Amino acid sequence: MADLVRDLAKEEMKKLEKKYPKFAIGDTIKVYVKVVEGDKTRTQAFEGTVIAAGGSGISRTFTVRKISFSIGVERIFPYYSPKISKIEIKREGQVRRAKLYYLRDRVGKATKVKAKKYTKDVLKKKRKPRKTKKATTKATTKATAKATTKATAKTPKADA
After folding, report:
1. What pLDDT score was predicted for residue 9?
2. What is the phi-psi region of residue 108: left when phi exceeds 0, alpha when psi lies from -120 to 50, beta otherwise?
3. C-alpha–C-alpha distance, residues 14 and 12, integer Å
């Protein structure tokens, strides 16, 4: 019986396969949620810090917390919800906890999470390799110098 339920959950996850960017606890993300008002549908952004993630499989969820008009607002999103249109990562945070519930007691700047620091190796991997112009510039300057000397030698000098 348990295998049957697991198989059904896997099939359901394949149907609802989402291609969201990978985010972790402490990251500041922007979740675009589809909101239905009457017969119209619009997307509403909810930007905040991911303070928790839970569940597995089809019941996977994540909790986002933001401060709105000096009041803390938390929202739990099912990861495979059809109401989520997209997720953007605004800032990656560096934390040492799996749950950031302690942020509930903090006020103001104390609620900020440290930004993740990258080493030079990681930054080099993220950047695209530069195109070096040294070899082409040397050849170009030599060719330009030759062309200018030929042009000045060919022009007849005006007699004064």
Report:
1. 79
2. left
3. 5
